[in-house]
Amino acid sequence: MYTQALNTTEVAAPDESEALDRFQARIDAEARIEPNDWMPPAYRRTLIRQISQHAHSEIVGMLPEGNWITRAPSLRRKAALLAKVQDEGGHGLYLYAAAETLGVTREELVEQLLDGRAKYSSIFNYPTLSWADIGTVGWLVDGAAIMNQIPLCRCSYGPYARAMIRICKEESFHQRQGFEIMATLCQGSAEQKAMAQDALDRWWWPVLMMFGPPDADSQHSDTSMRWKIKRFTNDELRQKFVDATVPQAQYLGLTIPDPDLRFDAAEGHWVFGKIDWTEFRRVLAGGGKCNRERMAARRQAHEDGAWVRAAALAHAAKQRAKAA
Ligand SMILES: [Fe+2]
Ligand SMILES: [Fe+2]
C-alpha angle 59/65/68, rounded to 5°? Predict the structure, then answer.
């Protein structure tokens, strides 16, 4: 998922209103907006913020799982996890490239992440304590990502929508590898099953928070829906996720840590308990268990990569001189 749209509402100047009408008509007709097309400044800003938050989340999201590559229980698990973490790095790069088509540079975006101005998904500030956490992250975090990102393949902004198509295919592999880890643990020893249950207990609520604040509190959702950046509200996506995931937990023989969870046969939905939004706000504001560690790791990685950037620039300069 990794994205919650944060729009600003902007009033158009009188001479812009005709352009705005034409823009909205194109959106209504399901046309794609491309980088060189006219777009309202607020549409551009919303997308830069949303796509860059998404990119940052993919990059920071490599950390909790990268942490387990050397400890994966078999060569097969190690190869799959390594491939998954590399995919997430790739997702970050496609998304930075999509954001760059809106007139922002990669350097600015990376700087915003490193100096703490930019946000990334709060889910990556939780620690991965056991191997079952890697299964749970794949199953639930990537599962939530798919729920959120499939509609983004139809986002009105062309470069973002196209990037999402490949990303979603890869997320679906991530979700399956996570579920398979969980299925293996749940069919294993009592101790392994307990480990799977413990991971589900810790991740369930933070994953529900990934969809963002409830609709009643997210006043900017309307503009994003009108512009077809978003196709479903946070609450709609959260409900779809719960409806899809409860039967999977039942299949695994795990208990979702929510005493209020019940099936409403008339509505055809799983009704779930209250989400603790104070925890969400606290983690987003920097109070999660791993916020500091994650940012320190990113800053260190950026510093460690300085020689690579310098070498690439020197190589490009030499090639230019040769060509001249
Ligand atoms: Fe991803
Ligand atoms: Fe993923």
Answer: 140
